[in-house]
Backbone:
């Protein structure tokens, strides 16, 4: 550890005060560019929902292949997330954003020209790899360029972009389907509408790849590669200061936190507890809990809920729009509060809210009558279930949805950030795949009461996990992250 000059703590305090007064337009804009990866993430995972029935009819898919055509992208996402960290450490954050954009574009074109289910699955997996890359690189880049006092708000842009991407895919699918008279009907150039649904994704993909070339490289990556002057120039831009002493101290702090003699690798994540550092396990469990509460069940399999309380299948667009808009709006709550209240209190409040909402849904469905498509909720239980479902979306969207991405982007030490985030994000995609594929058989054989009860139990476990294990990162510099973990691991 390097010794501080007596005046350095005071100088750093002055630097922090100056930084808080200077949230530059530049850092906001480049964070928005990085967050476009989240938009593609949301768009790609949602666009298939409007096309899948028409695809199944055209290619004569079995129920299994129909489901796998949707979920296969999640396996690609886990793969993309796993490799994104190593690519980001070797080639830079900008290069990986460009790679992600190109993969999205290839997937959109390939899916649009698909001639059978197996090549469609291939292109869906390619798009999933792009999703996984975006899920790692966007929060990593935003955390590494954002000043500490606004890092939470800028990091929350990732989740906001995901929700907007989901909503945009919903609107795009509806517009194309309505224009053609159905997703399986022919429209422009004699193509079926579902092909155009996929092809639209080329536009935001190429926009992201182009804009990624215009933003500066992460100063942390540049310092890791020994490009100190370029890193100083970037810090001058994003921090909005010409105080050379402040910039030099910042560079020195980053360099100290990243000192190493070898190239970064996944072996850096090794620790004494079950093979990984404690902070890496915390990141993995945050990711798993984010999915284990069943949020994607609400978005992927909500038809049974709406039908059971009296909605017709033809109302699916309206009900999905309500849920999607709610998800977008409540994300602004997180953006407004994350740097004031902190990460940990929001997660705790979110866990409690989700536990109550899911518990109410489990109780409501215990009163259901009928089975399968004939299942219904009598009397007041229908409205109670709808209110509980939307309370769950609000609780998730204002807390666990955005805050987990903020924490994953900032909680790891500089020298392992990209690799650790990659492992955590891969775990998240595997958890997403597991929850999404186990819900149909669980609800069919055990009932919705058991299914929602299981998710409520995970919400309760997440409450105690955050209370005991998750560190508060509000207002802390990235160079301070992991010091406690390092001490425990030593």
Residues:
């Amino acid at each position: 550890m390097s010794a501080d000059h007596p005046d350095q703590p005071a100088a750093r305090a002055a630097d922090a005060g100056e930084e808080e007064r200077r949230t530059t337009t530049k850092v906001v804009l480049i964070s928005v560019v990085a967050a476009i990866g989240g938009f593609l993430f949301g768009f790609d995972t949602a666009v298939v929902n409007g096309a899948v029935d028409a695809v199944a009819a055209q290619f004569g898919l079995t129920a299994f292949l129909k489901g796998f055509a949707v979920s296969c992208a999640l396996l690609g996402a886990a793969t993309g997330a796993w490799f994104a960290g190593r690519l980001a450490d070797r080639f830079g954050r900008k290069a990986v954003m460009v790679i992600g954009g190109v993969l999205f574009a290839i997937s959109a074109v390939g899916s649009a020209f698909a001639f059978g289910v197996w090549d469609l699955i291939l292109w869906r997996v390619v798009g999933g790899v792009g999703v996984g890359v975006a899920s790692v690189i966007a929060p990593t880049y935003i955390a590494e360029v954002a000043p500490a006092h606004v890092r939470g708000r800028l990091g929350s842009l990732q989740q906001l972009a995901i929700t907007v991407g989901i909503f945009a895919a919903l609107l795009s699918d509806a517009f194309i389907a309505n224009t053609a008279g159905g997703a399986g009907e022919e429209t422009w150039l004699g193509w079926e509408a579902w092909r155009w649904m996929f092809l639209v994704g080329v536009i935001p993909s190429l926009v992201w790849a182009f804009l990624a070339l215009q933003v500066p490289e992460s100063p942390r990556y540049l310092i890791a590669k020994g490009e100190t002057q370029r890193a100083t120039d970037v810090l001058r831009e994003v921090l909005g200061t010409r105080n050379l002493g402040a910039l030099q101290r910042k560079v020195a702090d980053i360099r100290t936190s990243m000192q190493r003699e070898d190239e970064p690798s996944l072996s850096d994540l090794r620790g004494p507890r079950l093979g990984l550092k404690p902070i890496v396990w915390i990141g993995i469990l945050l990711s798993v809990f984010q999915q284990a509460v069943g949020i994607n069940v609400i978005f992927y399999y909500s038809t049974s809920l709406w039908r059971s309380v009296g909605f017709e299948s033809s109302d699916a667009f309206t009900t999905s729009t309500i849920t999607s808009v709610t998800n977008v709006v409540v994300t602004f709550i997180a953006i407004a509060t994350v740097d004031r209240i902190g990460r940990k209190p929001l997660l705790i409040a979110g866990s409690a809210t989700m536990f109550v909402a899911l518990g109410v849904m489990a109780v409501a469905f215990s009163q259901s009558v009928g089975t399968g498509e004939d299942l219904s909720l009598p009397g007041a239980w229908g409205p109670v279930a709808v209110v509980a479902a939307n309370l769950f979306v609000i609780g998730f969207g204002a807390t666990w949805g955005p805050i987990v991405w903020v924490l994953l982007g900032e909680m790891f030490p500089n020298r392992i950030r990209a690799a650790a985030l990659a492992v955590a994000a891969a775990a998240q995609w595997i958890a997403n795949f597991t929850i999404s594929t186990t819900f149909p058989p669980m609800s069919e054989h055990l009932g919705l009461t058991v299914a929602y009860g299981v998710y409520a139990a995970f919400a309760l476990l997440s409450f105690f996990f955050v209370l005991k294990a998750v560190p508060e990162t509000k207002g802390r510099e990235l160079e301070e992250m992991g010091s406690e973990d390092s001490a425990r691991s030593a």
Summary: The chain has two domains: 24-215, 268-484. Residues 11 and 102 are 44 Å apart (CA to CA).
